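User: Please fill in residues for this 377-position structure.
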């Protein structure tokens, strides 16, 4: 069941009026009975979704027929629309519908997370979200399926899609990897997947921490629909998690992997630019937000945060190309992988400037004015 909820949703979409992008936001509570994987156990749930719908007014894009359904990221203890924050300019420019899903328990009820903070919906607004109830991450896959089915079937006013595309970043990408490998073939709800900044591992089916899995998880051989994964240098190499290089597989008729040289898992666009970038900010203000800084959330780092913009642009190109692939059957372009050494663990094979070879090339690495990387000390 889906129920509209009056008032402003609790979701950090940017420090600007959403109407300046030509969109409105509406929140809904979704309830039902979800199945846990891999067991047949069922449980009641009530979660929330936030739908962003084009206003279809002069000067803005009309709905293009595709709805992006984002598995919200909870690594910081809060529901974070990571793909929206990084790629909202393309989403708005092209008139995509967008639905954010509180798929995991931490975002709703609180619990363990990387930041050690409780910024869950219930902690931030206990009155508004008191009726929510999430039985645990083992049920998140079925909850995400049921929301996708509601979206696909036109249950959200103003969004009657021709196609629905699943998207998620970082921890959410690890859950989407498991969803693709273990759930999608039977669920058959989504028409394509954008798996943004996954690592070599994937989330477990039983609801355990995605950050404690130690075995690499390549995408399955027999994909049902197009999958495009976007990988930064941080994601590719071993760090606090196994790197994507351990799960690499060649592109197939339904798989594309785009690896971005000179890029980081999070960068100045993630942290400083995306929140103000609505298309109306003066260039000087954007440039100031992109400027190198070693300040992060009140902490002074020993290095500058990655300030190159190619991650933002390549991700937007991925959304556009995946949509074309899903809607027309024309596959997204292929790209060679980033070049690695033969060491174990491998390192990036660098050019004379110290920048990575291979991958999706951009002017920022082909005609560089600075060396940027996804590898912090």
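Assistant: Residues filled in for all 377 positions:
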């Amino acid at each position: 069941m889906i129920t509209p909820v009056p008032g402003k949703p609790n979701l950090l979409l940017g420090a600007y009026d959403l109407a300046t992008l030509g969109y409105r936001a509406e929140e809904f509570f979704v309830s039902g009975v979800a199945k846990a994987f891999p067991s047949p156990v069922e449980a009641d749930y009530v979660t929330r979704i936030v739908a962003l719908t084009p206003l279809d007014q002069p000067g803005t894009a009309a709905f293009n027929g595709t709805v992006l359904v984002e598995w919200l990221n909870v690594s910081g203890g809060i529901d974070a629309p990571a793909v929206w924050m990084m790629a909202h300019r393309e989403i708005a420019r092209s008139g995509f519908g967008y639905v954010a899903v509180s798929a995991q328990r931490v975002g709703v009820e609180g619990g363990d997370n990387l930041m050690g903070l409780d910024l869950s919906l219930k902690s931030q607004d206990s009155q508004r979200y008191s009726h929510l109830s999430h039985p645990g991450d083992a049920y998140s896959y079925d909850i995400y399926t049921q929301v996708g089915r509601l979206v696909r079937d036109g249950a959200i006013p103003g969004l009657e899609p021709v196609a629905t595309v699943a998207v998620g970043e970082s921890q959410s990408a690890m859950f989407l990897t498991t969803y693709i490998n273990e759930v999608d073939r039977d669920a058959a709800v989504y028409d394509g997947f954008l798996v943004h900044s996954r690592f070599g591992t994937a989330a477990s089916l039983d609801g355990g921490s995605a950050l404690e899995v130690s075995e690499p998880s390549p995408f399955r051989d027999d994909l049902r629909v197009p999958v495009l994964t976007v990988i930064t240098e941080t994601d590719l190499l071993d760090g606090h998690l196994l790197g994507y290089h351990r799960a690499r597989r060649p592109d197939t008729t339904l798989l594309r992997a785009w690896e971005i040289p000179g890029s980081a898992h999070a960068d100045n666009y993630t942290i400083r630019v995306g929140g103000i970038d609505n298309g109306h900010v003066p260039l000087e203000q954007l440039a100031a937000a992109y400027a190198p800084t070693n300040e992060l959330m009140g902490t002074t780092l020993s290095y500058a945060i990655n300030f190159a913009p190619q991650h933002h642009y390549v991700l937007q190109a991925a959304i556009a190309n995946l949509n074309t692939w899903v809607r027309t059957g024309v596959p997204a372009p292929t790209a060679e992988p980033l070049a690695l050494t033969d060491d174990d663990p491998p390192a990036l094979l660098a050019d004379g400037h110290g920048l990575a070879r291979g991958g999706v090339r951009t002017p920022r690495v082909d005609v560089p004015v600075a060396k940027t990387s996804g590898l912090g000390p």
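For context: The CA atoms of residues 76 and 115 lie 5 Å apart.
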